[in-house]
Input
Amino acid sequence: MIRHHGGRYDGCLSKRGFKNPCGRDGQILADYYPRIRVVVMSPAGPVSILAGELLPLAYDYNSEQH
Output
């Protein structure tokens, strides 16, 4: 069970816990779906962030399409 508390999550998705997206997957999510929310592990536990925040200094595909 997962309960949302202002960007923070209590509970777990499975017995294996959360896996943060790898760099390639994070870049794809940031390029094509920058406004979706992704649950990632932080030192304080699972948190929800925008896909565009996964790689803060990453190449920005959308800004290069002019």
About this structure: The helical segments are 23-32.
